[in-house]
Specification:
Length: 414
Amino acid sequence: MQRFDAKKVLLIAILASLFTLSLMFFPKEGLAASVEGLHVFFEIVFPSLLPFFILSELLLGLGVVHAIGALVEPLMRPLFRVPGVGAFALSMGLAAGYPMDAVITAKFRQNGLCSRIEGARLLAFTNTADPLFLFGAVAVGILKAPHLGIIIAIAHYVSSFLVGFTFRFYGRKEERRTQVFEQEPPRRYLLRHAYHKLIAARQEDGRPFGQMLGDAVHESVRTLFMIGGFIVFFSVFLRILTVISATKLPMILLGSLLTLFHLSPSLAMPTIAGIFEIDLGTSATAALPQVPLVEKIAVISAIIAWSGLSVHAQVASVLTKTDIRMRPYVIARIYHALLAFLIAYLMFPFFSHSLLLTASVSWFTNRQALFPLLALGIFGFVWLTIILLSLVINARHNISILRFSLSKKVMKKP
C-alpha cells in the first residue's frame, strides 16, 4: 500500500477545495474557459494529433520502430546514451509536437525497448514543438513577422539537442549498477540487421493487421481524450486564477527579477501565463507594446521550450503506467527554456538585420500552402542526417575492428 506525505495531502486538499469554491463563485468565467479549452481540443489538437497517434501505434506493431532503432543505434547510443528507437520518438515529436514524444517514450518503456533512465533522457530532449507551430502559429499568426520563425526554430531545436547531450550523463551511477540495455556491437551489414529486426518484431507481435488497427484507434482516442481533459482543466484553472487576482504577487516578484537582468518588467504577466499554457503566454508576449522585439523573441522562445504546465500534466498522465520519473523532465524543461532564451537573445542581432534572409523566409512563409513542405523539409533533413551519420559511425567502427584483427594476424606470423 502506497504511503502519502500528510503535509502534501493536506496542502493539495486545501488547494482543491479553494479551487472548487472559486469555481462556484465564478461559474460564468469557468464555463467560458471550459468552452475555449474544448474549442482548442476539438478543432486543433484532436484532428492534428490523432493520425500521428494511430500511425505510431501501427509502426510499433509492424516492427518499423525496431528497424529504425537498429539502423540509428550507432549514433543515438554514443551521442545521447539512448537506444536507437529514440530517434523515432525524436522524429514523431518533431512532426506532431507535444505530447507525442511522451506517448511514444511511455510505449517504449512498457514494451521493454528502453530502461527507466533512458526513458527520462529521451523525454529530456524529444519534447519539442513542431515546425508548423513555430512558423505558422507563432511567427506568422502571432508575431506577424515570418522571418522571426528562423530565430525561434533554431533556438528551440539547438537548445533541445544541447539538453539531450547534457542529459546523457543523467543516471550514470545507477546505470553502472544495473548494467542493462548495453550498446549493441557494430554490424557489418546495418541495413540487413534492421530488416531482420523488423521481421522479428512483427512475428513477436503476432496480431492480424485488422486487430492492430482497431487497437491503435482505440488506444489513440482514449489517450487523446485524456489529454483533452487536461487542456480544459488548465484553461479553467488559469482563468479562475486571473479572476481572483492570484497572479498579482508572483507578477510583482517576477517583474522585480526581470528588472535585475535589465529586462522589461512588463514581460512578467505573459511569462506567468506561459508557465501555465504555451499559447496564452506567446500571444500575451507578442501583444506587449513598447517592449524591445529582442526581449519578446527571447521570452517566447523560453515559453515554447518550457511548454507549459498544461503539457506537463499531459506528460505526467501518459507516464502513470511506467516508472519514468517526472523530476528529470521538469528540470530538463527549465534548462531548455534558459538555453532557448539565451540562444534567441544572442542570435537576434545577426538574423533580424539580414535582408536576404528576411525576404526569402517571408516569401516562403507568407504562402501558407507551403507550410507542410517546410515541415517535411525539416523532418527529412533531420532523418537523412541521422541515418547518414549512423551509417558512417557504424562503418568507422567496422573499419577499426578490421584493422585490429588484421594487426593481430600480422603479429601472429613468425
